[in-house]
Description:
By secondary structure, the protein is an alpha/beta fold. Helices cover 38% and strands 18% of the residues. The protein has helices spanning 2-21, 40-54, 65-73, 87-94, 143-154, 158-161, 171-180, 190-193, 232-239, 242-250, and strands spanning 32-36, 59-63, 80-82, 103-108, 110-114, 134-137, 165-168, 185-189, 203-206, 215-221. Strands 2-1-3-10-4 form a 5-stranded mixed beta sheet, sandwiched between helices. A 5-stranded mixed beta sheet has the order 7-6-8-5-9, sandwiched between helices. The longest helix is centred in the first third of the chain and has 20 residues, at 2-21. The model is unreliable at 1-8, 13-26 and 258-263 (pLDDT under 50).
Amino acid sequence: MCRIAKIKNILRCLVIVCxxxxxxxxxxxxxxxxxxxxMQFAMxxxxxxxxxxxxxxxxxVCGSSGKLTAQxxxxxxxxxxxxxxxxxPLALYKDGLAESEPxxxxxxxxxxxxxxxxxxxxxxxxxxxxxxxxxxxxPQTAPxxxxxxxxxxxxxxxxxxxxxxxxxxxxxxxxxxxxxGAADYGFIARSIVSSxxxxxxxxxxxxxxxxxxxxxxxxxLLKKKDGKHPDSKLFMKFLFSDHAGAILKNYGYIVxxxxxxxx
Length: 263
């Protein structure tokens, strides 16, 4: 049964990749980048910047860092893994599935977001009787969800809001819960609410980054049976360039490895 389940998981991963890449013929392999959900919009901008600079259009597969890690272990043919933390890509390296230890490309920031505009956004609002549902990403697979739990605990309001929490599969699903009205508030990546796609919808505040562990986000080149994609190292070089750093800053990320200080 375990072997059958593993085969099914591999096939599921291949289906995802085929949908995203359009099942390109063998002679035209795509550079496939597995990207954590918080990077969804930023990665679109990075992908465009990479294309403008090198004429290469990477294909993106988004999901929670934990689920993408499981897919990579199951054999998903991704070339690069852009994670929301350092833990998952480091685990892949220790498993022999990555070329080297992860490099920190950015630090994420957590925000509290709501579509309710009749009051100031504060953490105290979460404790009000009128607040019924609070969305957070699953802390077991999403680093931003883990950071949200730390915020609630460090501010001493965990016991007051625990019963209101609604767990999403990823940070992108948190945004769906808020936008659809399924949640009154959502703990979201600042990169999501800073994106042109979401900007101007509702109200949000950045949360004190000293109240949760730094969200250090790592990237790794993945090992593949058929060898590295010829453009994978080029994209990694671009990811750590000043051009990419400016894009990441526009989406609310901190880029400490480029000499930036925490804001």
